[in-house]
Design a protein that fits this description.
By secondary structure, this protein is α/β, with parallel strands linked by helices. 36% of the residues lie in helices and 29% in strands.
Length: 279
């Protein structure tokens, strides 16, 4: 693989000062479509390769992941770069040494231009960003929420969309980002029991006359989120397919809203029909 024709830019600033928040703005002003940020290769608003270092269990592992120390991690990014063959790329890092190390590990050319966070953000803005990071544990990833839902199942995700104007007569700049809050990293680990899923669905069933009862629930955990299987009894007189479709949609929405978990699959099976007694 040879990336010698790629022009490499760097965006440098201390951790928590707003680099990811402003990454797309800097890239847009330089005509750059590709960003490397915390282990991810991002093309415009899409993650095209890598796994976010923000999922790493310790700070040391986070840094190692962001630097692409492991062969399998760097090879995934290099293969994607070979596929997309970008003219320019922006690397985010906390120091000049870090961005140079990332470029070297990925066998990219030397950095041709560096933008520092204090060139695009005021001291007050950086202090505010740092305060939010320390007190609330919020991180920003410069891609839309739907791009991260699967990889960050269990994290609280807040979408953030910003519209900015570059000046009179120029095309407005649209920035789509996601604020992630890895609650367990700051408040200890958490576990959601299968009983919670069942209780949520039983509550929803009570609100739907067409569902007489939830009789069985089984949840299986995966890295991307839980897969859920449930069996219900449908009240006689309702269209069973429509009932199951509606209940499934409501159950998925409610579980994801209440637990911050990404539901990989949700299967609803009608096991029997309840026939109300005639009065």
């Amino acid at each position: 693989m040879s990336f010698e024709k790629i022009k490499v830019y760097a965006f440098v600033g201390p951790s928590g000062t707003g680099k990811s928040y402003r990454a797309q703005m800097v890239a847009s002003e330089k005509g750059i479509s590709f960003i490397i940020d915390d282990g991810l290769l991002i093309k415009d608003n899409e993650v095209v390769a890598g796994v976010s270092a923000k999922k790493a269990p310790t700070k040391i592992e986070t840094v190692k992941h962001a630097l692409f120390y492991k062969e399998e991690e760097k090879n995934v990014i290099k293969q994607a770069l070979e596929k997309y063959n970008p003219e320019k790329i922006l690397i985010l890092g906390t120091s000049d040494g870090m961005v140079k190390k990332i470029a070297a590990n990925l066998e990219l050319p030397e950095i041709s231009e560096t933008v520092y966070i204090n060139e695009v953000a005021t001291e007050e803005e950086m202090q505010t960003a740092r305060h939010i990071r320390v007190t609330q544990g919020k991180h920003v990833i410069p891609v839309p929420t739907f791009e991260l839902k699967k990889d960050f199942s269990g994290y609280l995700l807040d979408p953030l969309q910003i519209f900015k104007s570059k000046g009179a007569g120029q095309k407005p700049y649209i920035s789509e980002k996601t604020i992630i809050r890895p609650t367990f990293s700051y408040l200890g680990n958490f576990t959601i029991s299968d009983t919670v899923f069942r209780q949520i669905m039983e509550y929803l069933a009570e609100k739907m006359p067409a569902i007489h009862k939830v009789i069985r629930t089984r949840a299986t955990s995966t890295d991307a989120g839980p897969t859920i299987y449930m069996e219900v009894i449908v009240t006689y007189g309702y269209n069973i397919q429509e009932v199951l479709k509606e209940f499934k949609a409501k159950a998925r929405k409610e579980i994801e809203n209440l637990t911050a978990m990404n539901i990989v699959s949700l299967e609803v099976v009608a096991k029997s029909v309840y026939i109300p007694e005639k009065k």
